[in-house]
Amino acid sequence: MILEWSDEYSLSNNIIDAQHKKLFKLVNTLSQLNERQVTFTNFKKTLNYLVQYALQHFKDEEILQRLYDYPQYAEHKKVHDDFTATAGILSKITEKEFSPEKFISLKGTLYNWLKQHVAVDDKKIGDYIRGKVPDIGKLTS
Ligand code: FEO
Q: Which of 17, 66, 113, 130 lies 20 to 30 A from 80 at CA?
């Protein structure tokens, strides 16, 4: 399972697009960790970095939405907030609770969530911005 970037996911903002590309890379790194070789320590390290990066990205993306008066801002922020709450629970997982089965389940959940969120929820922001500023692509490429 590899997440691949496509320009159709673009929000016509170089900073946010770069963050999405990096999030894809981080989830791919997690996804490629072999459950027979993964250790609790490297799982936690990768997960914590991914979550911290995602939280900063949410803040930046919310600023972009407010900048363009995105009409679904509140709903989108709630999705971010729900992920943040779930991430808080995930990051508290202890070594005792960790197992190969749990690892497979967690990496699948993160992979599916990010794919769905960027390809569907975030894409709507890009479509909205391009509808509002048709030439924005020329300014950001
Ligand atoms: Fe790119 Fe809504 O997170």
A: 130
Sign of the alpha-carbon torsion through 5, 9, 134, 67 = negative
Residue 12's domain comprises 7-140
Cα–chain-centroid distance for residue 12? Answer: 17
Atom of ligand 1 nearest to the CA of 23: 1
- 25-37: per-residue pLDDT in tens? 999 988 888 877 7
CATH number at residue 18: 1.20.120.50
Q: Does residue 48 form part of some domain?
A: yes
Ligand 1 atom 3: residue of nearest CA:
58
Tell me the CA–centroid distance for residue 81 and ligand 1, in Å: 11
45-57 tens-digit pLDDT:
988 999 999 999 9
Handedness of CA 130, 136, 140, 141 (dihedral sign): positive
* 122 secondary structure, DSSP code: I
CA 116–ligand 1 middle distance (angstroms)? 10
C-alpha 36 – ligand 1 centre gap (Å) = 31
Structural domains counted in the chain: 1
